[in-house]
Amino acid sequence: MLVLRSGLTRALAARTPAPQVCSSFATSPRQYDGTLYEFRTYCLKSSKMNEFLENFKKNIHLRTAHSEMVGYWSVEFGGRINKVFHIWKYDNFAHRTEVRKALAKDKKWQEFLIPNLALIDKQESEITYLVPWCKLEKPPKEVHVLWWNESADSCAAGRHQSHEDPRVVAAVQESVNYLVSQQNMLLIPVSFSPLK
Question: Under DSSP, is residue 82 helix (H, G, I), strand (E, B) or coil?
Answer without folding.
Answer: coil
